[in-house]
Amino acid sequence: MSEFQIRRDDLTQTRIVAAGNTVEDFQLDSGDILVKIDRFAFTANNITYGAVGDQIGYWQFFPPSSGDNGEDTDGWGILPVWGFADVVVSNTEGLPVGERLYGYFPPADFLKMTPKGIGPSRFTDAAEHRSALPPGYNMYRRVTAEPGYDPSMDNERALLYPLHITSFCLWDALKDKNWHGAEQILILSASSKTSIGLAYALADDKAAPQTTAVTSSRNIGLVKRLGLYGHQVTYDNLTDIDANVPAVIVDMSGNLGLLAKLHTHLGGNMKHCINVGMTHWEEFQSKEGADGIITERSEFFFAPGHIQKRMADWGPAEFNERTGSFMHATALRSRDWLTCTPIDGLQGLADIFADVSGGRIAPDQGLIISL
Ligand SMILES: NC(=O)c1ccc[n+]([C@@H]2O[C@H](COP(=O)([O-])OP(=O)(O)OC[C@H]3O[C@@H](n4cnc5c(N)ncnc54)[C@H](OP(=O)(O)O)[C@@H]3O)[C@@H](O)[C@H]2O)c1
């Protein structure tokens, strides 16, 4: 097996570690399964898992292996990814060899899992080291059994569903709070897929305030072509935003300097700021220019927390129905502008990794790594 690892304290350093390459290299206990990872998506979201790995616990999902050559794992970690895998060995009843799964995987050839709570459509990986982590990440969908499962949507699902479920939750949270009294919604890092998912939801909601995309000059072309946002502004022209109109900010960038400038520009009309992401992770880590952020009207948004809340409010069936139909529709609509770019194996990921972490992948490209 090969595994893609990254330095936890320096997200520019990666390596591929070889750790056995056959099914026989894995020791499975009774109840365990072994899955072969087939494909996964890779976006700024995966880089963010590393940028906040210590705070949120993302390093704990998949501990790095020391490999055939006994590499030192100290300081190394694994960035989780979303994708598909097939069961290749099964020591548990109810999950036969050949079943296809969707969920959270390591960028590696195989994953040994300990399924619990096996239902017709899902189960949980109850591996001990994952037990304290947010339950949504430990849940796997049994896609083979899904009514209407369409393998031709696998790429869009791997790429967009983990992001667009967040977009749905952001729209729901904003609406639930009556848009925080704002008359404009400013979306930072507007060319990201999570932002575009939110833009779909807001464009479809007649009650939603007008939206403004805030993005880099490099990506404003795509943002305009989408035709989803009411207005577009680049980071260099933040003061073009009308400070007389009460605003709510949804921030995917984590760029504290930009946020401080925008909060200062809006002043009392900065009604609320929802901190969602950090596509500009280097600026987030440097904390440069952060003075001026109105922290008392800022909140951190964690999609798994909102998902758990709505599952309890609506029940899992209604939640799945509402989010499922949203994500299916937005994935189909994304075919108008998004191209899934195939990447060959973990070496292909290693070759393109610096472009992803450096923000040099065009926003209308979606990387799908096939193993
Ligand atoms: N809190 C939550 O629960 C939650 C859930 C899902 C996603 N998120 C977060 O939302 C963010 C968006 O994720 P995504 O996967 O949708 O992103 P994505 O589609 O890969 O976003 C790409 C865009 O991000 C910006 N970017 C990426 N890397 C950059 C870099 N190094 N320097 C400058 N700009 C860079 C660029 O947009 P611009 O030019 O427009 O800035 C680029 O077009 C991530 O931080 C992700 O972790 C959070």
Walk me through what this model shows.
With 371 residues, the protein is α/β, with parallel strands linked by helices. It folds into two domains: 2-149 and 338-370, Quinone Oxidoreductase, Chain A, domain 1, CATH 3.90.180; 162-302, Rossmann fold (3-Layer(aba) Sandwich). The chain is 31% helix and 26% strand. The protein contains ten helices and 18 strands. The strands form three sheets. Strands 3, 5, 6, 7, 8, 9, 10, 17 and 18 form a nine-stranded mixed beta sheet that branches. α4 links the parallel β11 and β12. α3 (154-176) crosses α4 (193-204) and α8 (303-314) crosses α9. Bound molecules: NADP nicotinamide-adenine-dinucleotide phosphate.
Search tags:
31% helix, 9-stranded mixed beta sheet, alpha/beta, 6-stranded parallel beta sheet, 18 strands, 2 domains, globular, Rossmann fold, binds NADP nicotinamide-adenine-dinucleotide phosphate, Quinone Oxidoreductase, Chain A, domain 1
